[in-house]
Specification:
Layout (H helix, E strand, L loop, with lengths): L2 H11 L15 E16 L4 E17 L5 E3 L3 E3 L4 E18 L2 E19 L4 E18 L2 E20 L4 E10 L5 E11 L2
Antiparallel strand pairs: 1-2, 1-10, 2-5, 3-4, 5-6, 6-7, 7-8, 8-9, 9-10
Length: 198
């Protein structure tokens, strides 16, 4: 099953996932998390083309602003956004992409520090659809025969879509797929365990 099929399945199941007692479990507060998944790295130049997948790992932290009150407008009107907002930072090890050139293995080792704004669309008291947009400050190293040939870095836009689940006890999980405009394209799918402090 690919990541797109998994995400669609989670979205279809969202209306049928309920919290015990039907009480809201989403609150404002900081959270931390650990995650793992898969990354796909594409890179090419005049001499080399690399397209490979590898394991990725993530350490994340953020703050969710939940249950945002209605915004008062003129003439006694109020705007109910229906969304929660948040901020998130993460260290992401995107793994290695490898290719054989003339019998020699060449690899690109990529990691990054990410900062994103987050929008949560509540589906039910426990589940949200999550959209992210932010920046990845990445660093990539090209190696061959255990020798570093090139060290490159940059900062690029990233966009993500996923699902977040909270249990009401502080523990939760989130699955997300992100696209990063680094090198010639990077995709990463991550499943993370989270804990929100109250």
């Amino acid at each position: 099953m690919n990541t797109k099929s998994l995400l669609v399945g989670l979205l279809l199941a969202a209306p049928f996932t309920v919290d015990a007692g039907g009480l809201p479990t989403k609150t404002s507060g900081p959270y931390l998390g650990l995650g793992s998944g898969y990354s796909k790295i594409d890179a090419r130049n005049d001499y080399l083309t690399v397209s490979d997948e590898d394991l990725s790992f993530r350490v994340l932290g953020g703050y969710r602003f939940a249950q945002i009150p209605q915004i008062p407008l003129p003439f006694s009107l109020k705007l109910d956004l229906g969304f929660d907002f948040g901020i998130e930072v993460a260290y992401v090890d995107l793994g290695e992409a490898e290719v054989a050139v003339g019998g020699v293995d060449v690899s690109i080792d990529l990691d990054a520090v990410a900062a994103s704004g987050v929008v949560y669309w509540p589906i039910n008291p426990s589940l949200d659809i999550v959209a992210k947009a932010g920046l990845y400050a990445w660093d990539g190293k090209v190696k061959a025969l255990d020798t570093e040939l090139l060290d490159d870095s940059g900062t690029d836009l990233s966009f993500g879509l996923g699902i977040a689940w909270q249990t009401g006890t502080g523990f939760g999980a989130q699955f997300e797929v992100e696209s990063l405009d680094a090198l010639d394209g990077v995709w990463v799918a991550t499943l993370s365990a989270t804990y929100q402090f109250k």
